[in-house]
Structures are given as structure tokens and as C-alpha cells.
Amino acid sequence: MCKRICITNRKLCKDNFIERLKSLSHRNDIEYFILREKDLTLDEYISFASKIKPILKDRLILHSYFKACQALNINRLHVPLYKLIENPEIKKNVALLGVSVHSIDEAITAQKLGADYIIAGHIFNTACKHDLPARGLEFLKDICQNVRIPVYAIGGINPENEHLALNNGAYGICMMQYYMNELNI
CATH number for the 3-182 domain, one of 3.20.20.70, 3.30.565.60, 1.10.10.350, 3.40.50.2000? Predict the structure, then answer.
């Protein structure tokens, strides 16, 4: 079975975000949920995540805010690489650390700094990054061949093309648009 991560974006959600997460939480094809609500301040994020935690339980990964992990007693965090570079001690305080990367050098750096997995992208064209060209499957394959930790592909991934990412070395895939907007629940 394909390892999948649901990346949240409540602004993309076509219906009630909380109800959608409740429905998605019953799916066994989603390994983790990354609560990626980048527009929230730390305090807003902690308040919001406290409402999501009982729904997603041990499948919830917080995004960017290490202090939210401390406040909510959640030991899973996903960060952009620059945050890990700024504070490499983060790894000592979480059980699961994911890092977003956009090049082979970044992937190698994330691995050296203790990332447990990386998310590499964006692989295909996507509405979220409409102004940037997709990096493609060769990019994904190169990253997978240069690190020893799991690599999740992101960017324009859906059930119809996920096999292409997996066939090029990805451990799993991440989907935002599909889970937040396209999948009928």
C-alpha cells in the first residue's frame, strides 16, 4: 500500500474543514496528516491544533512551530529546511522530524541534520505553485538515490499519477488539493 500524507490547507477546503478531517481520519490509506496552516500566528496555531489533536491523535504532525509541539505535547514536527538549519537542536526534542527540500543538496543537508523523512517537490505542476515550473520525476529520482531516509513526493500528486512518483523511488506521496478539495467525502 502506498504511504500517503495528507497536507492540510483549510482555505482550500470546499466544505467544513473539521468535518472533512474527521472523515479523512477514518481512512487507513493516510499515514500522517501535516497541519500546514501557514497563515496562523503561533498562538492561533496552538489553539487551532488543540482542536485537531483529538481528531487525528498520533497521526498528527505539526508544521513549523516547535513551540506548538511543546505546548500540545506532540512530538512530531515538519519544518522547512531553513528552520532546521537555524535550530538543529529541534531534532533532539521530537520523535519524528520531517523536512521540506527542493534540491539534492538540501536533501543531503536535511539527512545530515537528523531528518527522519523528507518531502521533495514540487514534482508536477500544481495550482499551489502555479508560478514555478515543476521539478519533475528525474529530480525526484535523483533525490531518492542520494539519501537513505524516506522521501515523500509532493506537488500535483493525485491517485492517477502517484505510481509515477513511487516508480521513481519515492517512499510515499503527499497530497493537499486532492484531500482538501477534490475527494468527495
Answer: 3.20.20.70
